[in-house]
Write a structure and sequence with these properties.
Blueprint: H1 3-6, H2 11-16, E1 28-37, E2 40-50, E3 55-59, H3 66-73, E4 81-86, E5 101-104, H4 116-127, H5 132-140, H6 145-148, H7 157-169, E6 175-178, H8 187-202, E7 206-211, H9 214-220, E8 223-228, E9 231-237, H10 238-243, E10 247-251, H11 254-263, E11 269-270, E12 276-278, H12 282-291, E13 296-301, H13 305-318, H14 320-328
Parallel strand pairs: 3-7, 3-8, 5-6, 6-7
Antiparallel strand pairs: 1-2, 1-4, 8-9, 10-12, 10-13, 11-12
The structure holds adenosine-5'-triphosphate and magnesium ion.
Adenosine-5'-triphosphate binds next to strand 2 and helix 3.
Length: 329
């Protein structure tokens, strides 16, 4: 941690004058975040940055460490090691944080006896936000006046997510940290969320959102940080990650194709939907197959297959079926 980060003086002024003008132009910086629970390491040496104007997807299977990382980012869970700054400061050092960072960690963590409108009004009062903003927000998250009068205990999951996103946006923050905001939304709801976050980012805002579904972040995010078993396994621009899948090849007889590739010294892995994935260029793969007299039925850039394959492997590593199998062994 630098001296500047440790220096508590004039935090208010510094952050109030700030939108995203941190040292490196990042809105969020996460460095070496680690969390251990007894002998179990939930999050290990996680580092990434979130840029303004960009939606960053934090992708990983169930139990990968997304929520734990986000809880550490907003000061709810003390890290075992590492640090995170939001707009250049530790979250707990942000004055009136809701005015700078909108956070949605658990949409069901509302008081079930309060109406949606009451929840927003209370949050607005705590943050010192004009109460007119409550109606604006209800409108923005498409909760009808009748719905806003209902107790949140009667809300569907999708309605809770809308209210939670509304609460995160209430203080007109520059940064959003949202844990699984699309969870429980129907396709129209996901489309709505995408438009909302895109507009927020286009206005220069910074968004970090987590998901355990590749397809979901694929449609919403510009950049991806992929986490598996507590560690970052890939990060970068979505387009690049999707494009970096190498070559997908499928033969009439995959067994013979595998032998041909091995004989030609080409490393490969089995693709999720059959055939093989390799980093070798297509002409080299075609050459190897042809030399061995193997007929190909498919040879193309793998596109998203590499990322999907990696994600499926991560998911398989985590799946209950697998752990039960491991436990039996
Ligand atoms: N308070 C805690 N005590 C012990 N272990 C914990 C605690 N909180 C989280 N863990 C463990 O840390 C790991 C990561 O959990 P986390 O909730 O961060 O995963 P996640 O990526 O958010 O998963 P999901 O997609 O299911 O929300 C899991 O193995 C979990 O059991
Ligand atoms: Mg989680």
């Amino acid at each position: 941690m630098t001296d500047a980060r440790q220096n508590a003086g004039a935090d208010d002024e510094r952050v109030m004058s700030r939108t995203h003008d941190t040292e490196h132009g990042y809105a969020i910086e996460v460095s070496g975040l680690t969390k251990t629970y007894g002998a179990h390491t939930a999050v290990e040496d996680v580092s990434f940055a979130v840029r303004p104007g960009v939606i960053t997807g934090f992708l990983g299977p169930n139990g990968a460490g997304k929520s734990t990382t986000m809880r550490m980012m907003v000061g709810l869970t003390p890290p075992s090691a590492g640090w995170c700054t939001v707009l250049g400061l530790g979250y707990r050092r942000l004055p009136n944080p809701g005015r700078h960072v909108g956070v949605l960690l658990d949409a069901s963590a509302q008081h079930p006896g309060r109406t949606g409108r009451e929840a927003l009004t209370l949050a607005a009062t705590v943050m010192g936000v004009d109460l007119d903003r409550v109606d604006e927000i209800l409108d923005l998250v498409a909760l009808t006046p009748a719905e806003a009068r209902r107790r949140t205990g009667t809300y569907s999951l999708g309605m809770r997510q809308r209210l939670g996103v509304g609460q995160a946006l209430l203080g007109d923050p520059r940064v959003l940290i949202l844990d699984e905001p699309a969870n429980g939304l129907d396709p129209a709801g996901i489309h709505w969320m995408r438009g909302l976050l895109r507009g927020f980012a286009d206005d220069g805002g910074s968004v970090l959102l987590s998901s355990h579904l590749l397809r979901e972040v694929e449609v919403i995010a510009d950049e991806l940080v992929v986490i598996g078993r507590g560690r970052i396994v890939a990060q970068g621009a979505k387009q690049e990650l999707l494009a970096s899948g190498g070559t997908l090849v499928r033969g009439v007889d995959d067994q013979r194709l595998a032998t041909a590739l091995t004989d030609a010294g080409i490393a490969f892995t089995s693709a999720a939907d059959g055939g093989y994935l390799t980093q070798a260029p297509a002409d080299q793969v075609a050459g190897a197959a042809s030399a061995a007299g193997v007929v190909l039925v498919e040879l193309r850039p793998a596109e998203g297959a590499g990322l999907e394959d990696m994600f499926l492997r991560l998911t398989a590593d985590h799946s209950r079926e697998n752990s039960q199998e491991r436990a039996r062994r």
